[in-house]
Amino acid sequence: MGPVQRLKKDYPWIKTPLVVGAPMRLIALADMAVEISRAGIGFINWGASLTASIPLIAAYRPAAVWFFAPSSLASLAEWATQTRAASPETKIWVQVGSVAEALDAVRNVKPDVLVVQGTDAGGHGLVRGASLIPLLPEISDALRHPGGGGDGGEGEEGEALKQDDTPVLLAAGGISDARGACAALTLGASGIVLGTRLLAATEANISRGYQAEILRAQDGGQTTVRTKVYDQLRGTNWAETHNARGVVNRSYVDAVGGMDEEENRRLYEEEMGKGMRGGG
Ligand SMILES: Cc1cc2nc3c(=O)[nH]c(=O)nc-3n(C[C@H](O)[C@H](O)[C@H](O)COP(=O)(O)O)c2cc1C
């Protein structure tokens, strides 16, 4: 069965080409999930607490769960095992940013869907990454001939995977219109994921100041940056392997200008305290 047939079998309500709304922590909440689900597919995002999440997966039996940036390969495998035990019909999606991550995930978790995330993506991703143009075909080839890459686990002798063990590939990162979607399909994806594009949606749980900045930003390579500054200011502790792409704002300019981190955090919190009016 080809990837598009598999998608239609696993999620009979979808239309193809598949367009998926990315999980965006604290932003893609119920309003956006409902609007997007009307157009296509159900998902839940992955919270950090396995013990809190498994009973919810067992109770609500989502069509799919989406895993991203696990603390270790072993923890990813544990999430997958417990999810399958709690809800065998739930499909497992894993977002990856490199060939090695893709092979590790496929060997250890056998995901139904691999979301291939290129470095143009908004939000978090690998510090050392690649754009979708080289990454998608390389992952697609590596899955067909999985020798090399990965962590050197079993089955690395270059044996091709059985077709049903090969995950469906979706593309994420820098796609905001039909041209980007078509390009991703040409590269070998069976569907696409939109994150940043949906920050412009009414249903996005972000301040209007933040939303206005997203809409104002043009020439993205110049007006956005991959950095750890925003995590430092928010106190979110991501591993050294990850940073995040965000709009260049006053906090970033002050940080690289040498402002004391505590003072910068105070200004950030002051802005956040303005609620929906803030974030500009
Ligand atoms: C504001 C924002 C928050 C995000 N939060 C998450 C998240 O909580 N979990 C996750 O797996 N990916 C998250 N992502 C990354 C998306 O899954 C996806 O890779 C990315 O949005 C795709 O690139 P695009 O933003 O250019 O469309 C986030 C992205 C953005 C823009």
UniProtKB/TrEMBL annotation:
Coiled coil: none annotated. The keyword S-adenosyl-L-methionine does not apply. Keywords: Flavoprotein, FMN, Oxidoreductase. InterPro entries: Aldolase_TIM, NMO. Signal peptide: none annotated. One of its GO terms (molecular function) is nitronate monooxygenase activity. It comes from the Eukaryota. This is Nitronate monooxygenase domain-containing protein. It comes from Neocucurbitaria cava. The lineage of its organism: Eukaryota, Fungi, Dikarya, Ascomycota, Pezizomycotina.
